[in-house]
From TrEMBL:
GO terms for molecular function: serine-type endopeptidase activity. Residues 1-25 form the signal peptide. This is Subtilase family protein. One of its GO terms (biological process) is proteolysis. Belongs to the peptidase S8 family. Residues 176-423 form the Peptidase S8/S53 domain. The keyword Protease applies. Keywords: Hydrolase, Protease, Serine protease, Signal. Pfam families: Peptidase_S8. InterPro entries: Peptidase_S8/S53_dom, Peptidase_S8/S53_dom_sf, Peptidase_S8_Ser-AS, Peptidase_S8_subtilisin-like, Peptidase_S8_subtilisin-rel. It comes from the Bacteria. The active site is at residues 185, 216, 387. PROSITE patterns: SUBTILASE (PS51892), SUBTILASE_SER (PS00138).
């Protein structure tokens, strides 16, 4: 067990569907649970429940480097690559694997926490403002001081204490008396008898209080210095200073750093135990640097758990700090525990961990009402992890400090490491070996260091390297030692050495890298006359490497500066980013191998930094690197990659293109970007064939929402308000002149669109004609319409301009192509016959609004490119899709509230659907009645479809409280509610309205499940209450009945007041077939005050502007029942 730390160059970059004819098959459907993560740059990525990348939703026109490094997925926008590579921005901001693990998804936090000089910054970045603030930081703050993510750390005796030699040390008179050990953890149980009188001072650095409500800190503290009867800590005479720096399972860096400074500077602890850690690191992260800083300043020895990631991750921060004593976990049989993190240190291959101690099945103090799954008795719990190993070593350090009070932290560390018991394993698993504090307090010969790290030795290798271990003898007699090593032929040490009394002698460890390359780890052991000394040694002798130099030239023949390429080793699949400098060239030294080189050459508008290209060239090639190689990527040699839509008056709005080399599921190395559909796109291939290449290209298109009849092309700014439908003949006036009632022409090189639009509105302008490069959008709408045009089209200010506006394109194209092994040169001409046609209808709750439609092709079980569109609603239109499976989500809630109601929390998640070429389909989106759904997609689509089920003694509920009828199977809303489960009239518990779990031992009984959910911010289905009664003794899906509604409403989800309405109600069972014994429906025109029975017709009633509520009571032949009420199910017009 261990406290995990959230601490981040570089490769990437709701409706009903039914066949229109009986011959067409029902669309196939699956589900997927996803979460969004907003990056510090304002870009978003979507990941699945395992944290694997699903897609990137970037700012328009921005390229992304996607790559896997040390099993972590990174997504780095092009405008962050230099800042990351120059160490001005913490790369963890773009480490998708870590951000997901830390819980920094958008459904959990709405701000991105920052660190400033090691303390949490007051200016945490609101995610909604991230894009805007990133722009400002890129030009100012990032130049001054490194921007760090405030990450987290994760909380990671009776047999183990003798195992480390503590009783022998006690017999020698040393038990830590007079030494203070600080324990930075989850606090401690202030009433625990084994810690009575042990804690001399404490302080809380969290909002939770010093009392340990987790149990981790109490267990650790007792392992250091507990004074129980059977279970005694290693340093039973030491005093403890307890700092609480961790909450439920995580510890913010800022809290940990504050606790470290308190322990070392204020308390002046000789030893500080930190059974916590974050991600693997090279030692440059804030916690590791703070360990080294405080050790040098105060002399405190920081004993840190190595981590519990097994062989999958390296030793974590802050255990990787040079001065930290990093502790691995051994079983009680002396073998390394499987989940103990391995070394070497990331980056320089320094030897880590440093030492090992027992950390498996450790019984120690249990805080009251904690660790129920690990209980031994009321006062004790059994835990496993490097968290349990570290306090053994911290206690030993206190014992040794009592023995040698003048020793520095480095001396304590070196002696504990050198005097270990041998363990038959590598230093990168167990350090020098098993802690032996008994030997440490009695052996008079010591070593100057516990480890020697030669680090990375770069190729070519032309000389030998020497490092020295100094042995010192505090005794009165000389000591002769035999010196041996197990490092291989590249290393040499003298066979023996004599250490004089009260003197020292050096032993040179010589490495000749010319004898072989690779990673070398082993031990140098000196023994004789009862003396045993062990030193860990490590080196990384670099393999043969050569320079790969790339030069980029644009279609204008000029060098293209400040770009990047993703370079993927096709043998190891490791990816890196090669940055192109201001002169258009970049170079990197890489191992001998074949490499995939993926890039995009964007030619930008002069003097403009928004990554809006005037032309783009996708690059894919293969390089065989056996000597220095230079490659010129000349965009002038590129060939067109184009598309042509079936309708002449339609246009491509934008493209989402990705070049990638698959690495593993969810892990991609490649380049991705979204570009304006009017930007010419080319492709450039070079070198040998690259069969591993996948080129994904998605596009959205349709009729332009705004145009100049017979004139030049224009387009709405992405977040622009729209002009009313129709033709608008407008006078044109330059900004600065009288723009009242006119189209304001703004010539600009990248000002803030929102500020300009507001200023022009204040000046009386009807709309803005934006002449110049268009910045990315922040999400909110502009004050007045903003229409973009190319600068050269309005070089001379027109006196008047006619703009034709439509509310929405009557046709849309959502198309996806995938090419394997090569770029898709040429122009792809689409025909309607090869596409699927969908007659789509978009409903609202009465007013005018808009929906954001998001489409993703599903390829080989994975989500592909993202194709978004904002359209006005209500609407009917024809949509075309390329054949295949598509996943849709993201219907903006503004379509529900009516008018300008800015509801944006209501989203629809839908299951994938498979389209056939030439198929004709119908889809109804966001149609009432919305009511609880037991299957399909839930709050976030569940892999098993959700519902209510039993597994043993546990009943789980996964219910979509406001599900749609048909294809749109979930609307995510804000609002309140609860779920209650009862058996035989006795309440078993309550849960969240969307998901919960209940302890309900399997036995016969009458179960009742009550769901009550409200969403007052939306116009329809403002409250739904459902009561199910059923039996629940068997495992699996439980026999709950689901009510279905079929009502012929118009696009505003309304029916004519005073007119009878045909209606159909159904009841189906989520588990097995149900024979419905009875079904009775009711309608109410006064929000449920009075009810009228309904069969197949809702009788006339109510007034225009009012609402109709519905209630259904049904039962099946097995006695299962449902009683469901939906207030304001639809409106009357």
């Amino acid at each position: 067990m261990r406290l995990a730390r959230c601490f981040v160059i570089t490769a990437l970059a709701a409706g009903l569907l039914s066949p229109a004819t009986a011959a067409q098959a029902e669309p196939s459907r699956t589900t997927q649970k996803t979460s969004a993560i907003t990056l510090i740059s304002g870009d978003k990525v979507v990941v699945d429940e395992r944290g694997e990348l699903v897609r990137v939703e970037g700012r328009p026109g921005v390229q992304f480097a996607q790559y896997v490094q040390n099993d972590h997925q990174y997504v780095v926008p092009a405008d962050a690559i230099d800042a990351v590579s120059q160490d001005r921005v913490d790369k963890r901001f773009f480490d998708i694997t870590s951000l997901h693990a830390y819980g920094y998804t958008d459904d959990k936090i709405d701000r991105i926490p920052l660190l400033n000089n090691g303390f949490r910054a007051a200016g945490a970045v609101p995610k909604k403002d991230a894009a805007q603030q990133w722009t400002a930081r890129r030009t100012s703050a990032l130049r001054a001081e490194k921007l760090w993510l405030d990450g987290k750390s994760q909380i990671s005796l009776n047999e183990s204490v003798p195992m480390v030699g503590a009783p022998a040390a006690w017999q020698s008179g040393f038990d830590g008396t007079g030494v203070t050990v600080a324990v930075l953890d989850t606090g401690y149980d202030q009433k625990h008898p084994e810690l009575a009188g042990v804690v001399s001072v404490s302080k809380d650095f969290t909002p939770s209080g010093i009392q340990d409500d987790i149990g981790h800190g109490t267990h650790v503290a007792a392992t250091v210095a507990g004074r129980g009867g059977q279970y005694v800590g290693v340093a039973k005479g030491a005093s403890l200073a307890v700092g609480r720096v961790c909450e439920a399972s995580y510890c913010f860096d800022s809290a940990v750093i504050a606790g470290m400074e308190w322990a070392a500077r204020e308390v002046k602890a000789k030893v500080v135990n930190m059974s916590l850690g974050g991600d693997q690191s090279d030692g440059s992260d804030p916690l590791s640097r703070k360990v080294d800083e405080l050790t040098a300043e105060t002399g405190a020895l920081f004993v840190v758990a190595a981590g519990n990631a097994g062989t999958f991750r390296k030793v974590s921060s802050p255990a990787v700090a040079d001065s930290a004593l990093a502790v691995a976990n051994l079983t009680k049989h002396g073998a390394v525990e499987e989940m103990s993190s391995r070394g070497p240190r990331l980056g320089d291959h320094a030897v880590k961990p440093d030492i090992a101690a027992p950390g498996t099945d450790i019984v120690a103090a249990r805080a009251e009402n904690t660790l129920w799954e690990h209980v031994v008795d009321d006062l004790h719990a059994r835990l496993t992890g490097t968290s349990m190993a570290a306090p053994h070593v911290a206690g030993a350090a206190a014992v040794l400090a009592q023995r040698n009070p003048s020793w520095t932290a480095a001396e304590l560390k070196a002696h504990l490491m050198a005097t270990v018991k041998p363990v038959a394993d590598s230093p990168v698993s167990v350090g020098t070996g098993l802690l032996d504090v008994g030997r440490a307090v009695t052996q008079q010969v010591r070593a100057s260091t516990g480890s020697l790290s030669f680090g990375l030795l770069e190729w070519p290798h032309t000389r030998t390297f020497t490092k020295t271990i100094t042995y010192s003898n505090a005794g009165a007699e000389p000591v002769s030692l035999t010196v041996q090593h197990n490092l291989g032929a590249d290393f040499a040490v003298p066979s023996s050495v004599t250490v004089p009394p009260k003197g020292s002698v050096g032993v040179d460890v010589v490495l000749d890298p010319s004898k072989g390359n690779g990673t070398f780890f082993g031990h140098v052991k000196a023994s004789g006359a009862g003396v045993e000394l062990t030193t860990s040694v490590g080196a990384y002798v670099q393999e043969e490497r050569h320079a790969l130099t790339l030069s980029m030239i644009g279609r204008d023949g000029k060098p293209v500066p400040n770009e990047f390429a993703v370079v993927v080793n096709m043998t190891t699949k490791e990816a890196s980013v090669l940055s192109i400098g201001p002169d258009g060239t970049g170079s990197a030294r890489l191992p001998v191998a074949d490499y995939a080189v993926l890039s995009r050459i964007d030619e930008l508008t002069p003097n403009y930094d928004w990554f809006v290209p005037v032309a783009a060239t996708d690059v894919a090639g293969r390089v065989s690197l056996a000597a220095d190689v230079s490659v010129t990527l000349d965009a002038r040699q590129g060939k067109q990659i184009g598309v042509e839509l079936p309708e002449r008056d339609s246009e491509v709005w934008y493209r989402d293109a990705q070049l990638r080399v698959p690495f593993a599921p969810g892990k991609i190395s490649g380049v991705a970007s979204i570009i304006d559909g009017r930007v010419p796109l080319y492709g450039l291939s070079f070198g040998a064939p690259l069969p591993e290449l996948t080129y994904d290209s998605g596009l959205k298109g349709g009729q332009p929402l705004v145009s100049v009849p017979g004139g030049f092309p224009v387009r709405y700014y992405e977040s622009s308000r729209y002009l009313p439908p129709g033709e608008h003949r407008l006078d044109v006036a330059e900004r600065g002149s009288d723009v009242r009632g006119k189209l304001a022409l703004v010539r600009t090189a990248g000002e803030d669109v929102y500020a300009v639009a507001q200023a022009m509105k204040d000046a009386g302008a009807v709309a803005v004609l934006w002449a110049g490069p268009v910045p990315f959008a922040y999400g909110e709408q502009t004050a007045i319409p903003v229409i973009a045009a190319a600068e050269h089209h309005v070089a001379v200010t027109p006196a008047k301009l006619t703009l034709r506006a439509i509310a929405g394109s009557p046709v849309s194209y959502t198309l996806f192509l995938q090419n394997k092994g090569a770029l898709p040169f040429g122009v792809k001409k689409f025909r309607h016959s090869e596409l699927a046609q969908v007659k789509a209808r978009y409903h609202t709750s009465g007013g005018d609004g808009s929906v954001n439609q998001r489409n993703n092709p599903v390829v080989n079980g994975a989500i592909g490119v993202t194709l978004d569109e904002r359209l006005s609603a209500p609407a009917e239109r024809t949509e075309y899709f390329t054949p295949g499976t598509w996943f849709q989500e993201g219907f903006d809630g503004r379509a529900f509230g009516g008018g300008d109601d800015p509801i944006t929390t209501s989203w629809a998640h839908v299951v994938p659907v498979t389209f056939q070429a030439g198929g004709r389909y119908e889809r109804t989106n966001l149609r009432a009645v919305t009511s609880p759904r037991l299957g399909g997609a839930s709050l976030v689509p569940w892999a098993d479809g959700g519902g209510v089920e039993r597994a043993g003694d546990l009943i789980t509920t996964r219910i979509s409280p406001f599900g749609g009828s048909g294809w749109v199977e979930n609307w995510r809303q804000t609002g309140g509610g609860y779920v209650e489960l009862l058996r035989d009239g006795v309440t078993l518990g309550f849960s969240d309205v969307r998901q919960g779990s209940f302890h309900a031992p399997a036995r016969d009984g009458r179960y009742k499940l009550v769901l009550d959910a409200s969403r007052e911010s939306l116009a329809l289905s403002t409250n739904v209450k459902t009561t199910w009664e059923f039996s629940a003794s068997a495992d699996g899906k439980l026999p709950l009945l689901e009510v279905g509604y079929s009502v012929p409403l118009d696009l505003r989800n309304s029916w004519k007041a005073g007119a009878p309405m045909p209606v159909k109600f159904t009841a189906t069972r989520q588990a097995g077939k149900a024979t419905v014994r009875s079904l009775q429906a009711y309608a109410s025109f006064d929000d449920g005050v009075t009810w009228t029975p309904v069969k197949s017709i809702v009788p006339p009633g109510g007034k225009a502007g009012g609402f109709v509520s519905l209630r259904v009571v049904a039962a099946d032949a097995d006695g299962n029942t449902v009683d469901q009420t939906v207030l304001r199910a639809y409106r009357l017009r």
